[in-house]
Amino acid sequence: MDIKTFGIVGTGRSARVIAELAAFKGYDVIVWGEQEGEFDSFRKAVDSSLQQKIDRWAITSAEKKVTVARIELTTDLTKLADADFVIETLVTDVEYVNAHFTRLDEICKPETILASNTSTLSITEFGAHTMRPDRVIGVHFMHPVTQTQVVEIARGLKTSDAVVATVRQLIESLGRTPVESYESIGLITSRLLVPLVNEACAMLMEGVAAPEEIDKAIRVGFSMPAGPLEMADRMGLDTFVVICERMWHETGDNRYRPAPNLKKLARAGLLGAETGEGFFRYDGNGARIKEGK
Fold first, then answer.
1. pTM of the predicted model, to two decimals?
2. What order of strands is seen across the sheet that includes strand 113-116?
3. Which of 202, 217, 183, 177 is nearest to 255 (CA)?
4. What is the pLDDT of residue 143?
């Protein structure tokens, strides 16, 4: 199947970056949001991200213009009827997402692939709310999407081999590396990352080490691009708490129970890089601010 038009349901952090990535790689992108008021922040985030790339000489002004022109924002879900691939990025309850899959199934062409960016909800359940369970698949863009090269492809019970192959090609065309798994709460990455972040939070609460030292030990010691606390900051602590709680409630395993200091920061609205403060502080471009400055 030749995918030319990319549909995105939602306007949050993941939606913005996925839209920018797909448009930059030449896809026409249609983004649905519930209210037009969501679009201002969406446009500003995409513009800021592209401008930062211009400032680093990574892209040209002409490439920025073309990328922005390929993104259409709409509150009319039926506009996604033209999409060949639609991905939902809604961080909300399963009933709300199920309802969107049912509606998309009614709207979209029979050959359209319907995907979810979740790592913690059931792809099989989403498929069961459509007449095309073989064309429903998990496509999890890891946070931060701009820096992480891996995209997880998760099969539901009835996802076809042909759809998996098409999605693998799509992910590769976006310059990302697909990693395939079967449906499982947390998939590969969240299942490993959540206990790591929770343990880092526990060490912080116990006074074992300062947050900078905890992250440095993992970042430098294991050649990772960021330590666990910064990774949580860049995912958005509110999003990270939702992931933890879903995994905890699904499995009953306390490894996934969100740490108290993690929840406290999220409740205070200190969500990480996007708000300028979480476990660490960040400037307007999302760069870490060194302590003492």
1. 0.90
2. 71-74, 28-32, 5-9, 85-88, 113-116, 136-141, 150-155, 177-182
3. 202
4. 73
